[in-house]
Amino acid sequence: MSETNKPQSKEQVVHLYKKAERIHPKKADGKYANIRIFMIIATQLFFYGMPWLMWDDRQAVWFDLMGRHFYIFGLVLMANDLLLLTGLMMISAFGLFWWTTIAGRLWCGYSCPQTVYTEIMLWIDHLVEGDRNKRLKLDKEPWNARKIRIKLTKYLLIFVVAAWTGITFAGWFTPIRQFVPDIFQGTAGNVALGTAFVYGLVTWLFGHIMREQVCLHMCPYARFQSAMFDHDTLIISYDAARGEPRGARKKNAKPEDKPLGDCINCMACVQVCPTGIDIRDGLQYQCIGCAACIDACNEIMDKMNYPRGLIRYTTEGVLNKDYTDTDIKKRLARPKVMIYTTALVLAAVGLFAFAFTRDTLNVDVMKDRAVMARTNKQGLLENTYRLRFTNASEHPQRVKVSVSGLKDIRLTGQPENGTLVQGGGSEMITVQVATQPEYARKGSHPIEFTFTYFPDKAPNETRELKEKASFIGE
Ligand code: SF4
Ligand code: SF4
User: Fold this and answer.
1) Nearest atom within ligand 1 for CA of residue 236
2) Residue with the nearest Cα to atom 3 of ligand 2?
3) CA–CA gap between residue 406 and residue 166 (Å, rounded)
4) What is the pLDDT of residue 4?
């Protein structure tokens, strides 16, 4: 190919990796910002306050992983209550699916820990560095004494929030009233300290450094929640039919002066968005449903004397003009929602019934392999069993054992008044079961233990538990 026929190419650099720009969202004021503040205060009062609440003489909610006991007020769950815990988790997950079908990403926008801690960190940014414009200006400024002082103040506040969040999180798993003084005395356990450190670090990393990147790139819920959306799910949307063609205009411009829609292209909705998107481009998975753009746009609509709601909670059905905003509530009774609701209510009722009527005593019957069947001093054929009682309530309970299944069967070895098991504790006793040799010929014979148990302070409230075992004959 001659020189002249070669294609003329200009060198072009295409960046496959671009550093994410720091987003400095503008503070939004309005109805939805107030709801968000309320939700943050409510969820954080619960999170920071609950570990300090006492129930009798212990922490009211305490997930004691080491001791394999979960204390939730009067309810004591143990490792073998795994079914109950799994059920609770499943109900929580289905509850989230149900909620998402009805109301979209309300969880993300108002209650998700990622949103909550990002918002708290943004409050600190705003408090120390000022609103968006001041923050942008400060970031561009060269380092000087003022900038160092402001940044140090901000990082100190962020450190306090992250550290206290980590300590509180660890306090759900270790008694916090002991843990906090132990930290200052240098006697706190390594596991609890490690938990507090890791959670504090994650709070700082996710809430201050990564922020919207967690929602955009790490959160699985953001990816699959759209599968739960339907034609009638509440979404935050820009009403393009009303807003377009967008364009700037004077405040008192008459529509006929310039035939434009209601969007004045002020970009206020973009400036408040914590994920930096433009809601006018349509429904996007990056939208976390925080509604800051609704507040920002409503403020502009008020200034322009236009009706509010250019950006609003609505549904695809309304945007397609299948029905109007006033009909949204009627769509709640759609079959998909009714089926979800029924399943959820049934599961929740079943789980609560199970939790509050379940046996508060767990029993393990173990045949003592070291002691084979033998003939005792009375000439009876005897088997030995070890019985482990675990008290799944928080009060002491007394257990009395009897046995049946063979003719003239008798049981010896238990304390005269039964076995006392402390709340949340376990006890093991060894008992002998005996019968006449002719009633238990060679081989295995089914027998049944009956455990009668009652709260130590209320002997009339007896309950019974039966457990099958086998008796070895000779
Ligand atoms: S588009 Fe609106 S609702 Fe969605 S994240 Fe941005 S500000 Fe929040
Ligand atoms: S805030 Fe409202 S008016 Fe301003 S650009 Fe966004 S949609 Fe248009």
Assistant:
1) 3
2) 263
3) 59
4) 45
Q: Is any atom of ligand 1 closer than 6 Å to the C-beta of 287?
A: yes
Q: Whose CA is nearest to atom 6 of ligand 1?
A: 273
- Examine residue 4 and state whether it is found in any structural domain, yes or no: no
Please count the residues of the chain: 474
Q: Among all ligands shown, which has an atom nearest to the Cα of 277?
A: 1
The rounded distance, in Å, linking the Cα atoms of 306 and 128 is 35
The CA dihedral of 334, 337, 339, 341, to the nearest 10 degrees, is -130
The answer as to whether 95 is a domain residue is: yes
Residue ending a domain, choose from 358, 382, 410: 358
What SS3 state is found at 428? strand
Distance between terminal CA atoms of the chain? Answer: 103
Q: Is the dihedral of CA 433, 438, 444, 446 positive or negative?
A: negative
Domain co-membership, 139 together with 279: yes
Mean of the pLDDT values across residues 210-215? 92
Helix (H, G, I), strand (E, B), or coil: what is residue 448?
A: strand
| Residue 11 Ramachandran class (φ > 0 left, ψ -120 to 50 alpha, else beta) | beta
CA of 252 to the centre of ligand 2 (A): 17
Q: Which of 271, 305, 310, 312 to mutate to test the pocket of ligand 2 (most atoms within 8 A of CB)?
A: 310
How far apart (Å, rounded) are the C-alpha atoms in residues 421 and 393?
10
User: For residue 435, which phi and psi values (nearest 5 degrees)?
Assistant: -155, 170
Any atom of ligand 1 within 6 Å of the Cβ of 196 = no
Phi-psi region of 136 (alpha: psi -120 to 50; beta: other; left: phi over 0): alpha
Give the confidence band of 8 by pLDDT, cuts at 50, 70, 90: low
Q: Are residues 348 and 366 in the same domain?
A: no
Q: Which atom of ligand 1 is nearest to the CA of 292?
A: 7
Q: Which ligand is nearest to the CA of 292?
A: 1
Q: How many CB atoms lie within 10 A of CB 261?
A: 18
Whether residue 113 has a cis bond before it, omega within 30° of 0:
no
In a domain, 6, yes or no: no
One-letter identity of residue 165: T
Asked which of 72-86, 113-127, 169-183, 284-298 is least confident by mean pLDDT, the reply is: 72-86
Task: Count how many domains the chain has.
Answer: 2
Is the pLDDT confidence value at 243 over 60?
yes
For residue 259, how far is its CA from the centre of ligand 2 (angstroms)?
Answer: 17
